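Fig. S4 source data, part A: sequence.
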Amino acid sequence: MLSPLTHDDPVAVGGHLLMARLGGGGMGTVYLARSPGGRTVALKTLHAHLASDPVLRSRFRLETDAARIIGGHHGATVFAADPLGDPPWLATEYVLGPPLDAAVSAYGPLPETSVRAVGAALAAALGQLHASEVVHRDLKPSNVLIGADGPKIIDFGIARAAGDDRLTRVGAAAGTPAYMSPEQASGQEHTPAGDVFALAGVLVHAASGHGPFGTGAPADLLYRVRYTEPDLSGVPGALVPTLARALDKDPARRPTAQEFAAWLHDGRGEFADHLPEGVLTEIARRATEVWHHRPYRPAGPAANAPQPDTAPDSGRRPRTASRRRLLTAGGSALAATAVGGGVWALLREPPASAPGAAPSPGPVATAAPGAAGPSTPADKRQSWRRTIRTSPLLTPVAVGDDLMAVMTDDGLAGIGTVKGEERWIVPKVRDPRHVHSDGKALYALGPAADPYGHRVSVYTVDAVGGTIAVTAMFGEFDRPVRDASLLGVFGDTVVLAARGDSGGWRLLAVGLGESPGGAVPRTGRQLWARPLEAYDPKSADDSVLATVAAGRLILARRAADGSALELSARDPRTGEIAWESSVPADRSAPAPRTPGALAVDGRHVYVGGAVVRALRIGDGGTAWSFGADRTAGSYSQPAVRGGAVYAAEKDRGAVVLDAAKGTPRWTARTGDAPDVRVPPAVSGKHVLVMCHGGLRAIDAGSRREDWSFRPPATGMCLQESWDRLVLVDGEQVLGVDLRKRS
């Protein structure tokens, strides 16, 4: 995962421009970086305070040597290194794939065919190391990256030559207790057989979702490794004898790496063919993430000095060239994998975020950068167009009647929806996960003022001038702002997704409480916290949507495997779950995305999928469903207005249902097939349906198509508006007047 740089990270190391943080630990930090020639690399550095230790420098040099030995087929190719540099650094291939532990956490245990393919490749990698008389000594799921062309072993920080124990007494502990061999756990020599034992443990985790010796305190784990039998529950039966043999307490009875590889797989077929769909999708998403990533470095402590509650945040930053323009031709392969981030937002309602796939009509004249106002239109409904670099993850947030907030390269910007003018910008707010609006007020997370001793505050952003005011500081949430996502502000309660001390994410509610004085910000008090499993805050498809209806906190999230939409209702005061429901998707349709806004009223939560369902807010039971007896078999996420539920129906058009009973009020066909990934919208007398050939407007009176519009974008989401639409596609903002006649 990509994390922002910190203010004290260097700008460049060894001529490589740093772009983001990939991870770090007690010995060093790993960055995403760009080489002088434009190549994307993973760059590892040794912490400055450790670089003066000659033994640790030697360890870093051995890590570089081990990485070179394993090579680019089984490991990350070493492009450049300087173990004697200040600081020492190592630049390797950036592997486009998740760590094995993250893949299992997000998509569940791997099927047997995947485990065999991964295991055979890793065994071959160990065989290559052992042939050069090098042992890894710290093989674990987080040190294995799953790429489309095979798994790759990384982090050779404690690798060493077989029989050499000169570096085992210094620095980090030699190994990870949960995956150590018995001989390593008892302080004996770690031979190649110890790497085979560790690999078997890694494959147990891949096949079952748990390690062979459980979890717990290091002393408990070391005892189990030495004296208890491994837990192979959940491992496919055909794999049990093979893994049990490799987990034998006696290293002499374990297979060699080459034998282990032969037992696991015959090596036939392409590696990617053995991976489950979810993992392949994650590999593609990470390729897209690298392409869309915009480097961000927060200001230092002096720049984060406290501001008056109503001081304008008007420090405009000069616009810089887009990262897309700076990348060399080496990045074009990533561009081909990028998913269109276009978003339609209609005003006066919370935003939607499920992109569609309407084909582009071709090039359209664009206004000069930074200019607002009309340009050469693709359709006479287009009223203005503005070139602006926007975040692909943020659906525009509607605020009031004529303003939207959108995340740009320069910060959170307020854009007028009538003429497209930029009214203000807040450089301090730079992450789309930190923004929320209820349609009237705009809220944002930001770094707290230092004198108060806290690290996160919630701000209100003035819709007129863009000034910010600290509403509350989170006294019990002592974490960086990047470790939180703002899900909603409901009265005096802020709902967050927040990373805990253990690294896992939680659903968190903070009560704003009473202000001790008019000018003094309130101190937030944590009300409750609940685990939020397998949450990926940077994925547009892993957003958690929240709303309050009928006294319940309603949450929606896409299932990890994309097969369903998961909903739950909680008591907003305690976080206790009232009910949970999983609404399956149509398997023949694209995987459902998390809807941009929940369709709720005082009685029901409305969801699409294989049918349109109304779930009772009280108990989560199905009040009614529509579509089981129709051949369409796939419906968009619905919209609800005035006692009616509106949904797009696959291959047909629009359906309008009675919200109380689910009986059809009317249906209408569109000129081409609707894109069921995009909810419909209601604007005056029109029902707006996004189709694969463009936007179609159905007259609710005649129930016929009134007009259509082919917008210059590859992905869209719809929301209600009375007279105008706004399109954001990552490169431009486009206004569409719904009042004009074709």
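Fig. S4 source data, part B ends here. DSSP finds eleven helices and 42 strands in the chain.
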